């Protein structure tokens, strides 16, 4: 049976295009096992709550935290494997040359997108990591358990956006080189 | 920078919509399109200091506990795909109508309904049916359009029948009980499935050449099926997921995790479980989630910026002005908006964009937000199939034989979209079809 | 208008609370002769409810009408003053503390580093307690499986011997009707009655004893400072009136619902004695103490609230 079918979207290229992409894919494949871990702890929570009458205080928050990090990472993973959804009715119909120009346009837009997000993420993360008095205080969830997950997720967002910016830059360079060659 | 706010909210909205459609049509990634429009409007309308609004929404969106149901449902479908459970189920359903004209198409739809009551995301099922059912129908000489349409529309049922991520997100946005939404969606979902079946049967009666019967030889070659083995595990999984939700034992996210556990155990008992399978399924989950969640991120960013621009009041006033306050008029305008947005955006985007505005209007009109949830869900059924952005079609394309083009898939879906719209109209005219139990 | 502000509420737009808040914004506009216009946005429309403080600090939002406890993750002090679980038996006690007992000054001190001005405080109503089993005092809480939101509320109930369960609000009804939980911290009596909670869990404790959130109306400090004195006064005074307005309206709704429930032979309303409320407060106080250790500001809140309660004979 087709093993890649679930995520395969269109007949576009799904191979990572450079070293960075390959690293992201490797890392993402390893991280994806955390989804199974999330399943396991959620199962554990239900078991503890309804069989042993002893609910945990950490499962919901840990699961949400892992989910948040994986979802954010999923963005650069899908970018590395070119799996983000597009409307290709026109894109597929145009000539190869035009498509190359379109790709360059997309990557310039993507660079702006990731650049602005990185700037914004920096602003957000700063106030999650430092208290208004300037000392380091990681924002916590405010629950009974009160882990510093909000600060961690925000840091994760900032890091991911930086990587995405570099990703778009590298892809853009590759596209321009490809255009020159043809 | 040019101050966009001088445009006013009316022209601002228009510019936003047009730039979004224009960028989409260039083939740019949907998530980047909505996200970029959001960022540019944030700067253009409010200045650079407003940018953190976008990342704040990104943060809030990914941290939502309920979104964990998405990877769980995807994981479930990936595991069903990689174990033999779905294949056995499909073969077992041959009893439904091996000797009836159009029987395999009906069989496909029955399997679609069973799979739909296990899983709640769009994608997994379309792919499964595309692998299991489509080749069989094509081999038997079924009319291509009929075969493609049945597979695709059947696969989309996953979010119509509970559990459904569409209903879950709606329930959260509208703050109504997800259990109530599930209860109300059952009947309309069955009516929709029956509508598809009726269409298939009537069409194959009118055009016998569309749905040839299997030959004696083929019937003799049918593989022997252990019905117990084929049916027990899927039914067990359905019972776990829906049972834990309805008895209140687990939240929906937890129930979806239980469903995954159920399928892993089933695969283990069947002797099919191995680490490679788990790894592959997790990988597929990562990339599908990256895709789905980032579409949501783009949409939620756009919604935040649009709301800050004053979009809520604008849309509300526009709808009320156009409808002149009439209840039916308001609903019709909403339906048109949903159908149009559904042509260009993913359902997550549509839900996040419209529900915060529509649901209060619906409540103020004295209508039932639970009923409206079902109506919304039916709208999203249409959106999965409608071009140019039709996720179900995309998914099917990824596993269909190479000679089937996206254009052929979309044209095959037209009659099924018509059936969806008929059922949508029925539920609007007769709300009891959804909320009969109240 | 000379000053147009965007405030985000922590309530959805269909909610009664949102309507009352909207009426406040309309009053401000009239009182100021149209010089102030406040656009009120529903919860989550721009920022998630826990993120509005950042939004105001960055100048994206101008202000908020929200529950202070949502900022507990920024500083536990907000969690403690935002819902001093068990401290208040009725709304006037909390409002008295805020307006005349030091709460106003303390809130302004807490918000100052964020560049936020606390205009005034309000509240909803003391949440009624939904229960399937009769509860007449602290003793009855022992072993009770109850749904409570995370944070101080759960801790206090755990300290009282109950077994708190984390359940999303949308699951409470099913949970109670199936007996998955015995009781729930849900919302005010009138809303519970309307939602049918009291039919499936016919032993409500009303007035409740546990939860009374501080609702704060606050805005960006720079923008506040730009307002002339008369407009500042209009803002402050109108918020005080808003507090009176919303608590009274909710009380009226509660009274009506209580009457309705009393007429229903299946529902028994339980009202705890002052004695029992004090006992619960004493247990709660041990948890406030724990909470206070988490930050210097939280300690300030603890000192301020307990000295007020002691002065007024509530502890
Ligand atoms: Na489903
Ligand atoms: Na569509």
From TrEMBL, chain A:
The keyword Transmembrane helix applies. It is a multi-pass membrane protein. It is found in: Cell inner membrane. InterPro entries: DctQ, TRAP_DctQ. It holds the Pfam family DctQ. Keywords: Cell inner membrane, Cell membrane, Membrane, Transmembrane, Transmembrane helix, Transport. The chain crosses the membrane at residues 23-43, 63-80, 101-122, 151-173. Its main location: membrane. Residues 39-176 form the Tripartite ATP-independent periplasmic transporters DctQ component domain. Part of the tripartite ATP-independent periplasmic (TRAP) transport system. The complex comprises the extracytoplasmic solute receptor protein and the two transmembrane proteins. PANTHER family: 2,3-DIKETO-L-GULONATE TRAP TRANSPORTER SMALL PERMEASE PROTEIN YIAM (PTHR35011), SLL1102 PROTEIN (PTHR35011:SF4). Belongs to the TRAP transporter small permease family. This is TRAP transporter small permease protein. It comes from Rhodanobacter aciditrophus.
Automatic annotation (TrEMBL), chain B:
Residues 17-433 form the TRAP C4-dicarboxylate transport system permease DctM subunit domain. It is a multi-pass membrane protein. It is found in: Cell inner membrane. It holds the Pfam family DctM. InterPro entries: DctM (IPR010656), TRAP_DctM (IPR004681). The chain crosses the membrane at residues 20-46, 58-80, 109-134, 146-173, 185-206, 227-249, 285-306, 318-340, 347-365, 371-396, 416-437. Keywords: Cell inner membrane, Cell membrane, Membrane, Transmembrane, Transmembrane helix, Transport. Part of the tripartite ATP-independent periplasmic (TRAP) transport system. PANTHER family: SIALIC ACID TRAP TRANSPORTER PERMEASE PROTEIN SIAT-RELATED, SLL1103 PROTEIN. The complex comprises the extracytoplasmic solute receptor protein and the two transmembrane proteins. Belongs to the TRAP transporter large permease family. This is TRAP transporter large permease protein. It comes from Rhodanobacter aciditrophus. The lineage of its organism: Bacteria, Pseudomonadati, Pseudomonadota, Gammaproteobacteria, Lysobacterales.
């Amino acid at each position: 049976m087709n093993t890649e079918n679930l995520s395969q979207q269109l007949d576009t290229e799904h191979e990572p295009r450079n070293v960075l992409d390959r690293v992201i894919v490797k890392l993402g494949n390893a991280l994806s096992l955390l989804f199974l871990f999330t399943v396991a702890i959620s199962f554990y929570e239900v078991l503890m709550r309804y069989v042993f009458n002893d609910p945990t205080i950490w499962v919901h928050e840990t699961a949400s935290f892992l989910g948040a990090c994986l979802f954010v990472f999923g963005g650069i993973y899908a970018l590395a494997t070119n799996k983000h959804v597009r409307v290709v009715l026109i894109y597929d119909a145009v000539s190869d040359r035009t498509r190359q120009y379109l790709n360059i346009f997309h990557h310039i837009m993507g660079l702006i997108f990731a650049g602005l997000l990185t700037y914004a993420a920096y602003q957000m993360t700063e106030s999650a990591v430092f208290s208004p008095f300037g000392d380091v205080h990681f924002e916590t969830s405010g629950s009974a358990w009160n882990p510093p997950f909000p600060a961690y997720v925000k840091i994760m967002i900032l890091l991911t956006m930086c990587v995405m910016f570099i990703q778009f830059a590298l892809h853009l360079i590759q596209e321009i080189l490809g255009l020159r060659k043809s | 920078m040019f101050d966009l706010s001088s445009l006013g909210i009316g022209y601002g909205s228009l510019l936003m919509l047009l730039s979004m459609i224009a960028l989409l049509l260039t083939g740019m990634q949907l998530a980047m399109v909505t996200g970029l429009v959001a960022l540019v409007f944030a700067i253009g309308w409010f200045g650079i200091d407003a940018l953190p609004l976008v990342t704040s929404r990104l943060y809030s969106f990914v941290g939502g506990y309920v979104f964990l149901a998405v990877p769980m449902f995807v994981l479930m479908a990936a595991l069903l795909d990689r174990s033999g459970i779905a294949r056995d189920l499909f073969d077992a359903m041959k009893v439904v109508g091996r000797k009836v004209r159009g029987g395999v198409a009906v069989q496909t739809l029955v399997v679609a309904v069973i799979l739909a009551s296990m899983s709640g995301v769009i994608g997994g099922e379309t792919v499964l049916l595309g692998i299991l059912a489509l080749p069989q129908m094509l081999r038997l000489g079924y009319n291509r359009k009929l075969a493609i349409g049945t597979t695709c529309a059947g696969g989309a049922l996953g979010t119509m029948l509970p559990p459904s991520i569409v209903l879950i997100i709606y329930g959260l946005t509208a703050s109504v009980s997800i259990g109530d939404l599930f209860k109300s969606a059952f009947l309309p979902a069955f009516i929709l499935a029956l509508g598809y079946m009726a269409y298939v049967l009537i069409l194959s009666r009118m055009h016998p050449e569309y749905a040839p019967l299997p030959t004696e030889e083929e019937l003799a070659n049918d593989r022997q099926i252990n019905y117990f083995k084929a049916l027990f595990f899927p039914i067990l999984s359905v019972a776990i997921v829906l049972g834990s939700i309805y008895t209140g034992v687990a939240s929906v996210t937890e129930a979806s995790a239980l469903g995954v556990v159920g399928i892993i155990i089933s695969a283990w008992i069947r002797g099919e479980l191995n680490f490679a399978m788990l790894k592959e399924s997790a990988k597929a989950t990562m990339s599908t989630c990256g895709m789905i969640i980032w579409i949501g991120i783009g949409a939620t960013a756009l919604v935040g910026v649009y709301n800050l621009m004053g979009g809520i009041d604008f849309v509300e006033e526009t709808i009320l002005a156009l409808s002149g306050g009439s209840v039916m008029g308001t609903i019709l305008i909403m339906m048109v908006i949903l159908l149009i947005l559904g042509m260009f955006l993913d359902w997550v985007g549509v839900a996040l964009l419209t529900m915060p505005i529509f649901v209060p209007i619906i409540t103020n009109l004295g209508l039932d937000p639970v009923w409206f949830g079902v109506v919304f869900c039916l709208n999203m059924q249409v959106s999965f199939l409608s071009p140019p952005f039709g996720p179900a079609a995309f998914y099917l394309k990824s596993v269909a034989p190479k000679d089937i083009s996206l254009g052929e898939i979309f044209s095959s879906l037209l009659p099924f979209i018509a059936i969806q719209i008929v059922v949508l109209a029925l539920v609007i005219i007769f709300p009891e079809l959804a909320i009969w139990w109240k | 208008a000379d000053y147009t502000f965007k405030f985000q509420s922590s309530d959805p737009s269909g909610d009664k609370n949102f309507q009352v808040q909207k009426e406040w914004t309309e009053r401000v506009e009239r009182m100021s002769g149209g010089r102030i216009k406040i656009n009120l946005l529903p919860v989550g429309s721009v920022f998630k409810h826990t993120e509005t403080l950042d939004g105001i600090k960055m100048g994206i939002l101008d202000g908020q009408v929200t529950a202070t406890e949502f900022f507990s993750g920024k500083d536990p002090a907000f969690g403690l003053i935002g819902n001093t679980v068990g401290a208040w038996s009725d709304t006037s006690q909390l409002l008295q503390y805020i307006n005349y007992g030091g709460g106003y000054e303390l809130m302004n001190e807490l918000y100052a580093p964020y560049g936020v001005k606390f205009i005034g405080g309000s509240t909803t109503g003391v949440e009624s307690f939904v229960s399937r089993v009769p509860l007449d005092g602290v003793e009855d809480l022992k072993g009770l499986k109850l749904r409570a939101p995370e944070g101080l509320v759960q801790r206090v109930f755990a300290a009282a011997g109950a077994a708190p369960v984390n359940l999303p609000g949308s699951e409470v009804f099913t949970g109670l009707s199936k007996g998955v939980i015995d009781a729930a911290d849900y919302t005010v009596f009138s809303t519970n009655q309307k939602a049918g909670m009291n039919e499936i869990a016919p032993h409500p404790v009303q007035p409740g004893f546990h939860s009374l959130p501080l609702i704060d109306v606050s805005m960006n400090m720079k923008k506040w400072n730009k307002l002339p004195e008369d407009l500042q006064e209009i803002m402050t005074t109108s918020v005080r009136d808003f507090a009176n307005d919303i608590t009274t309206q909710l009380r009226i709704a509660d009274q009506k619902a209580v009457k309705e429930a009393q007429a229903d032979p299946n529902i028994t309303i339980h009202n705890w004695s002052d004695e029992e409320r004090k006992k619960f407060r004493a247990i709660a106080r041990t948890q406030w103490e724990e909470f206070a250790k988490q930050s210097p500001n939280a300690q300030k809140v603890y000192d301020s609230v307990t000295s007020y309660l002691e002065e007024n004979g509530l502890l």
